[in-house]
Design goal:
alpha/beta; Rossmann fold; seven-stranded mixed β-sheet
Length: about 250
């Protein structure tokens, strides 16, 4: 039996409703599934509630949080209680491996990525955020403390790519204006942010952000600087899809 806390977010205490907030966006799902190629057997590590798992392949899900395993929908593969750093499978067991918005929660990302590479005969697909591109989002100007906190959480893209194989492609993933996945940048033209992210900044920063944004909305300053985002059908922020091949 694993312990319940991995990384810096306690899903046992704060993961309620995750499956509702973090629904897979179908356009992002198409990219993830295409990256898996013709794989028939797939291991999904840090599987959570099952976001972005392909329904047309045999999926083995790995998820250490009981709260997240309980939110997996009917018909989804049952999740095994295990961690990325010690996958209980032989070398090359699966045609492909995937990990979506989870690597930053692993106790040892390098070891976990090496395990994904070990158990996959083919591609290893990772969906994550580029810490060096987080400041593309307008929120960086109002809440730099939040961006700094998020930057510390996410492993560098080059570090992930180096662990995925001798050949790794890195793709910028367009975020649709009506994206249904609830990560912060999905609301690039709306005045809403992922509530889980604010747990990493202090109350003073939150109060300052709220005050400044409220004032700029009332004066029209926010609209003057960022209102053009509402006319963009998609946004290229920090979301990245990495596809490593042996």
């Amino acid at each position: 039996m694993t312990s319940t806390l991995a990384g810096d977010f306690d899903y046992e205490l704060r993961g309620a409703g995750y499956a509702t907030q973090r629904r897979p966006d179908p356009r992002i799902a198409v990219l993830v599934h295409a990256a898996l190629g013709d794989a028939r057997t797939v291991i999904n590590v840090g599987a959570g509630a099952g976001s972005y798992e392909p329904a047309d392949r045999h999926v083995t899900a790995i998820e250490p949080s009981a709260a997240m395993r309980a939110q997996r929908p009917p018909g989804a593969a049952p999740a095994i209680d295990a961690r990325a750093e010690a996958l209980p499978f032989d070398d090359g067991t699966f045609d492909a491996a995937m990990a979506t918005v989870t690597v930053h929660q692993w106790a040892d990302p390098g070891k976990g990525l090496a395990e994904l590479r070990r158990v996959s005969r083919g591609p290893v697909v990772v969906l994550t955020f580029d810490p060096d591109a987080l400041d593309r989002f307008w929120l960086a100007e109002y809440a730099p403390e939040l961006i700094a906190a998020e930057r510390r959480r996410y492993p560098e893209i080059a570090r992930i790519a180096a662990a995925l194989g001798s050949a790794c492609d890195v793709h910028e993933v367009p975020i649709p204006i009506d994206c249904v996945d609830g990560f912060t940048e999905a609301f690039y033209c709306l005045l809403y942010t992922d509530r889980s992210a604010w747990g990493f900044v202090d109350a003073e920063a939150v109060t300052r952000f709220t005050g400044e944004l409220t004032a700029d909305l009332a004066s029209g300053a926010w609209a003057a600087r960022f209102g053009h985002l509402r006319a963009r059908p998609e946004f290229l922020g920090s979301l990245r899809l990495l596809v490593g091949r042996p």
